[in-house]
Amino acid sequence: MRRSVDGGQSGRVPQRFYARDNPRLPKELPILGLGCSSFSTFFASGDKAPLTVDTMSRDHAAVRGWIATIRHAVLDRGINLLDTAPWYGHGTSEVTIGYALDTILSNDDGGDNGNMQSTHPIHTRTRSGSLPRSQIIVNTKVGRYEADPLQQFDFTYDTTVMSVQRSLERMNCSYIDVIQLHDPEFAPSPSVLIEEAVPALLECRKRGWAKAIGLTGYPLEVQHKILVECQGLSHGEVVFDQSLVYCHNNLHDVSLFCDACFPSTEDAAEEGTEAEHNGKNVPYAEFCRQSSVRVMAAAPLSMGLLTNSGPPDWHPAKPTLKEACAEAAKLCQSKEVNISSLAVLFSLSQREVGCTLLGMKDVAEVDTAADLAVRFCGVDFDVDQGNEATDNQLHCSTANLDRVLSPAEKEVLSLLLDQSCGPFAGVASNGEYRWDGKEEAKKFWALLMRCERDQQSEH
Q1: The pLDDT value given to residue 265
Q2: Which residues contact 278 (CB under 8 A, 6 or more apart)?
Q3: Of 16, 160, 174, 221, which has the fewest Cβ atoms less than 10 A away?
Q4: pTM (predicted TM-score)
Q5: What is the signed CA dihedral for 442, 444, 446, 452, rounded to 10 degrees?
Q6: What is the pLDDT of residues 287-338, one digit of tens each?
Q7: Minimal CA–CA distance to 373: which of 30, 76, 9, 19?
Q8: Which helix (H) or strand (E) holds 104?
Q9: H helices within 404-436, ranges in order?
């Protein structure tokens, strides 16, 4: 399905095959993508006042730094996939990407959208770069927007269409490569997704405003439910081309590959019955493969858990998982191995994931991550090199890692993945290696109800 394309020239991140059988998706992409949530406004400026889409400009010091980071990632390190959302900085991330693309891309958009003719006006600002639009992948999202709980989520048809148009204008593009349904587990009901948001995305794809459709969220079971329920909505055509997961492809959670709890579509097709009746279940990554849905993964550091400094206060993980990750960090430090570097390498190595998205807020962070990705130059992700995990280890392939890790890193990885006495052994046995994404959505709706009551009491 994928192979690596030798990179490494001037430190450029290698690329690999992604979707040769789906013309709506890129045929190749970098193994490392730039997650653009870092280009947001909260306390980013020197005077501690957050920027907004109404007050920011390309001349602001913080924005200039973000533009330089994007340019360096794309032009110098070969990280030509940008993933953003209206939620990131409540628009500032998309605006910053637009500023950067003005200096990266050429003015000619002609023919860059495959066989589709976009009905959205071609970019309106003059560009000064030379890179063709077809050589950069720009993905964004719909559904999640403002900080105010009362205005945070909106999956209605009109808002979805308007959001896509606004993203095109902010980024000065005539099309988006993959438009993604953002955190659908927070939707007020499944019906608003099936009856409004998804038809709106299909219309945007039909008009050429987006080449492909994806979805992203934390609970894998929610993504699976949406993929299944949307079958047949587009007159036999595949609705979702791509699934972006996060925090399920890392050192403490490989449920993306290992939790076999989704009915196999191949068995159902072969036997002409529902797969649930024959007891054959597969992990989410395998379900996506069977359904011709490509997989990308974000947050290899698990939103700060797999760092020396630890996660932010708001992190939804239970104390047991936070303690396990802190123990893992100490173990790495005792062996003079950086836990964040090892975590990124682990995520990059998995052949079922087309691209790993990582937030990189400045040039230094881009170089650190790109240097790790360059280690995989020459690795063939099309070749199944076997699974060397034992019964006491997480059942996730480490074959590609063996080619890129130092002896010290290999030793530490073996200790981390040991489920009999490693730092994650406890959470692996009690199920607390991940958190309950649907429960987080319930907490949000409880908060929303309180906000609505408070608003009503004021009147």
Answers
A1: 85
A2: 267, 271
A3: 221
A4: 0.91
A5: -150
A6: 999 999 999 999 999 999 999 999 999 999 999 999 999 999 999 999 999 9
A7: 30
A8: helix 92-104
A9: 407-416, 425-430
